[in-house]
Amino acid sequence: MSYTDIVQTVAIVITLVAFIVTQYANRKSTHANSFVRINEEYNRLVTYRLECPEVLEIAKNWGDVHLDQVAGSPNLTRYYNYGELCIGFCDTCLYHKNKKLITKDDLDNYYSGLMDLVATENRAFFENIANGKYCSLEFKKWFSAWKKNH
């Protein structure tokens, strides 16, 4: 093997190692960004709940409310907005898991409990929305499975 062959081989090995390290770093960065994004969604929920504590009381009494009823009531509108934030949080978690930006273990260990909490608090609203056409198919599938276990 000539000196030139050795240099070329070393250059190829260094390039491959650099590529692998870059891929690993990008994966870790994407993973961390997913946690930030999901946590931001949940923080929006908590902030809204703190600013409008009545949403939890409305959630208990939601029942079969239709969109035309929401428009005429400021309290129902506030709750509807909160319910959309809750569904958005669940959708964000599901998206990041399905796109493998977080693992199933990540979802189970960090976010499933919070998804259970918002689904329990907003079950009637989730039922209402999941039976319509205004939410993602992933949310519908998740909520359907969630109902079977709760």
Structure commentary:
The protein is mainly alpha-helical. The protein has one domain. Helix content is 83%, strand content 0%. The protein has seven helices and no strands.
Task: Summarize the entry for a quick read.
With 150 residues, the protein is mainly α.
Helical proportion, percent range: over 70%
Number of domains: 1
Q: Briefly note the structural class of the backbone.
A: mainly alpha
The span between the termini is 68 Å
Write the layout of secondary structure elements.
Layout: H1 3-51, H2 54-60, H3 67-71, H4 74-98, H5 104-121, H6 123-130, H7 137-149
Helix pairs in contact: 1-4, 2-4, 4-5
List keywords for this structure.
150 residues, mainly alpha
